[in-house]
């Protein structure tokens, strides 16, 4: 464990807590893409299957349990509890356009052709594009609530910090995993447009609006 | 350089 990965995990945790707080406090999931949350639940479910087979540390186990539980809790809030506030008309990104190519890629490009490894690879690839429905929804509505932009910023920073962690581990531990690194770079690049808007607008107290 | 088989990252 290093400070970059720890701060990445903290940023990830913060993003999830911000999202849950936003939905719970405002009793509304307006502006939140349920499809991205479904993809995240799929990402954690397929990645953390080793929860039962390999124990790394109490921290590792606790975080995996939390990520899985919170992703399903978010789906429950969006599609059941506050479904009246779910903006179905703007959450129209076709998930199958993401899941299917990622599934094929996981079978073609992986480190080991075993079920657990293919599921892990699928999860890594899927996570890199899972935010697209959410970013698409923000661009479609042309704006996002400030709290939602904080959620997106924390979520985007998590994987950006992981990239620094991978550089660190490459030089100090001789560790690298090209699949995770390339997917992580793609994932972070997808946020760049949003990062720019967040820094130039939200941090100056303005509303996050996109040129629709 | 080795690639860690155990996924110790989240």
TrEMBL record, chain A:
Highest taxon of the lineage: Eukaryota
Keyword Endoplasmic reticulum: yes
PROSITE patterns per UniProt: ER_LUMEN_RECEPTOR_1, ER_LUMEN_RECEPTOR_2
Residue spans crossing the bilayer: 62-80, 92-113, 119-139, 151-172, 178-199
Membrane-topology descriptor: Multi-pass membrane protein
Keywords associated with the record: Endoplasmic reticulum, ER-Golgi transport, Membrane, Protein transport, Receptor, Transmembrane, Transmembrane helix, Transport
Location in or out of the cell: Endoplasmic reticulum membrane
InterPro entries (alphabetical): ER_ret_rcpt
Protein family (similarity comment): Belongs to the ERD2 family.
Name of this chain's protein: ER lumen protein-retaining receptor
Organism listed in the record: Priapulus caudatus (Priapulid worm)
Higher taxonomy: Eukaryota, Metazoa, Ecdysozoa, Scalidophora, Priapulida
